[in-house]
Amino acid sequence: MQKKPYVPGPRRPNSSNPGARRPDRNNASKDPYAINERIHAREVRLVGDNVETGIYPIPQALKIAEEQGLDLIEISPTAEPPVCKILDYQKFLYQQKKRQKEQKAKATKVVVKEIRFGPQTDDHDYSFKLKHAVGFLQEGAKVKAYVFFKGRSILFKEQGEVLLLRFANDLEEYGKVEQMPVLEGKRMIIMISPKKK
After folding, report:
1. What pTM does this model have?
2. Which is it for strands 112-117 and 175-184: parallel, antiparallel or unpaired?
3. What pLDDT, on the 0 to 100 scale, is given for residue 153?
């Protein structure tokens, strides 16, 4: 069997020059910031340590960045004109990621602690649970207190509501009521969040 002769297909753009950079269409979606030739404004406001702050035409701003061996990075595209900095782009991205990590670490995770009552909780049990709730609120956790009604005890739902309101009142110094008592199925729930110091 004879092989068919090889016929080259249509040439890709830039394939004649393998060193030429293709348009950064894929990278544009990956990169959160426009850099260098991808900045489309006619002029930009340059800020930063290694440059005289002011408004520059884009060719001049690119030249300044090139002379320093750094990148021109658009940090505020919505400003008029857009604000740019001259930095090493990889270093800039690393610093941004580091800053985001630190902010995430600072963002406090909300912890919700549950405290359960019966509709006819005695005073000793009540004060024991109240003490726990005070501790939770002081630690910065939210308290979800609820009265659980078993079987016919649902008849005492007013009693449960009074108990939860008394509980919220006793915790007034440490937390504020986020949600008044509501009946959800067999549970009447109240949410109390800690007071900001």
Report:
1. 0.45
2. unpaired
3. 61
